[in-house]
Amino acid sequence: MAVAATDDSVTVSSTSQEPFRVSFQVALDESQTGEIVIQVEPRWAPLAVQRFDELLEDDFFTNGKFFRVLPGYVAQ
């Protein structure tokens, strides 16, 4: 199953080195939508989080696709 982040669907709540969550609204199919929430831990990988923030600011994930989803485990 492929899902895609929809336009204007990314919500970010961050403060410096504190953990934060990123919410993606996704289209599951032609008629269903859902939400993917990612818990981000800056202290675990500060450079990766910095890059993730840059990608969010550049709308990199808008209309991106997830090709493999294992509920409660991983979305790739």
Structure notes:
- It is a single chain.
- This protein has one helix and six strands.
- The protein has 76 residues and is α+β, with helices and mostly antiparallel strands.
- The strands form two sheets. The chain has a four-stranded antiparallel β-sheet, with no helix packed on it. A two-stranded antiparallel ribbon has the order 5-6.
- The radius of gyration is 13 Å and the shape is globular.
- Residues 1-7 have low confidence and may be disordered.
Number of helices: 1
Radius of gyration: 13 Å
> Major beta sheet, specifics?
4 strands, antiparallel
Helical content band = 10-25%
Strand residues, percent = over 45%
What best-fitting shape do the alpha-carbon axes yield? globular
Q: Give the overall average pLDDT.
A: 78
Distance between the termini: 11 Å
Category from helices, strands and their pairing:
alpha+beta
Unreliable spans: 1-7
Query: From N to C, what is the helix and strand string?
Result: EEEHEEE
List how many beta strands DSSP finds: 6
What labels would you give this structure?
four-stranded antiparallel sheet, alpha+beta, 76 residues, single chain
Topology:
Blueprint: E1 3-15, E2 18-27, E3 33-40, H1 46-57, E4 65-66, E5 69-70, E6 74-75
Antiparallel strand pairs: 1-2, 1-4, 2-3, 5-6
Brief description of this entry?
The chain is built from one helix and six strands. It has 76 residues and is an alpha+beta fold. A hairpin with a 5-residue loop joins strand 2 and strand 3.
